[in-house]
Design brief:
Helix content is 52%, strand content 0%. By secondary structure, the chain is an all-alpha fold. The chain has a domain at 38-94: Plant lipid-transfer and hydrophobic proteins (Hydrophobic Seed Protein), CATH 1.10.110. Helix 3 (56-65) packs across helix 6 (85-94). It is elongated. The N and C termini lie far apart (67 Å). The model is unreliable at 17-26 (pLDDT under 50). GO terms for molecular function: lipid binding.
């Protein structure tokens, strides 16, 4: 009497393939939600006020807040900063695409 294929034990190659896929899924980077807080960009204020280059803290915060830039451009209180030509200069210096794709 032959065993049916459904009762066959898992082959080592299949087991390894499944294990690798599970490990890869567990190691995949998780999307982190950004909390939009314009106060995080206060480190960029000196660059807006005339500092020749933005600080590393400014660039770090700008990269972190990048998904929020469209919202900042819609806020009349922030648009005077983030809608200015200086904003592009700062973003370029920090390696952040500007203007954002809104």
């Amino acid at each position: 009497m032959e065993k049916s294929s459904s009762s066959r034990p898992m082959t080592p190659a299949l087991f390894i393939t499944v294990a690798v896929l599970l490990l890869a899924a567990a190691a995949a980077p998780k999307a982190v939600a950004v909390t939009c807080d314009a106060k995080e960009l206060l480190a960029c204020l000196p660059a807006f006020e005339g500092s020749p280059t933005p600080s590393s803290e400014c660039c770090s915060k700008l990269k972190e807040q990048q998904p929020c830039l469209c919202g900042y451009l819609k806020d009349p209180n922030l648009k005077k900063y983030w809608g200015s030509p200086k904003a592009k200069t700062i973003a370029d210096a920090c390696g952040v695409p500007y203007p954002p794709q809104c």
